[in-house]
Amino acid sequence: MNESGLVLLHLCAILQTGDAAAIAISPYCTSFDHAGETISLYEGQLNNLTIYTWTMECEATACINANTSCSLACAGCASFAGDVNLKIEGQGVNASAIPGLNCTIGDSSVPGQWPASCLAMNNLAGRSGYTLVLTIMNNASAVLGTKSANISFVAGDVVITKCIGSLENGTNKVFLTYDNILQIFLMDDYNNSVGAKTGRTGITPIPFNVTVTWNPDDGSKVTLGQPPIVDTTKGDDGYYTALINPTKTGNYLAKIGVNNTMIMNSPIPFQAIKGEATL
């Protein structure tokens, strides 16, 4: 409490997403003051966080010099007994207007701490311009202070049945004696591309298999030969590739999947023709 009788608050929130490192939200926490600091919300996962609040006594000079963790109070520091609210804002919309987003705050069972969680199930991965807003209120619901942090939505796990395949040349034609590239785009359950641009790197390679057969709607029973090998080296870019090298003209089907689970648009029909590829 300062000389005018007002209670000054030290607000802290720590957000943990999976194995991600904790991030602090506070008007006074050093870690929050780093330029460009962003909190990540993973699609399809329950992102747990704990909100900590302490009175201004925590910001005594001795505590500041000690760089005290936001989740720990200095000796003699009292916890705040009011209430907290959490919402996400962005691009002119509030949390309720963001599709598939739900943030809840539980009851405080430990003085000064509130358990909270945010569940995102939308197609916002990789987008910026969203803010997590923490509001501190007293027991009469009067707002005593707010703090915000940048939010980024991170793609969820790859879902085989949502992945999409296509020829790199954008047509349904491939050319004889030419390395025609087939792309397999990695997608999550919420139509987000899964890769570095949506916060996901180093994903364990998915064992896609590509089987090329003659199209039963075509009278000739042409074959491609050995199954194309799927190259996973561009996984961080959000897709895999496979080379199709037909030696005979005709109509084919490319079946793409993992074991018996096919991607969304498998099988992919294409026609092998003579001539030079024009890219």
From TrEMBL:
Cross-referenced Pfam families: Ig_GEX2_N
Superkingdom to which the source organism belongs: Eukaryota
Residues covered by the GEX2 N-terminal Ig-like domain: 163-271
Segments annotated as Filamin repeats: 230-272
Residues making up the signal peptide according to the UniProt record: 1-20
Keywords of the record: Signal
UniProt name for this protein: GEX2 N-terminal Ig-like domain-containing protein
Native species: Riccia fluitans
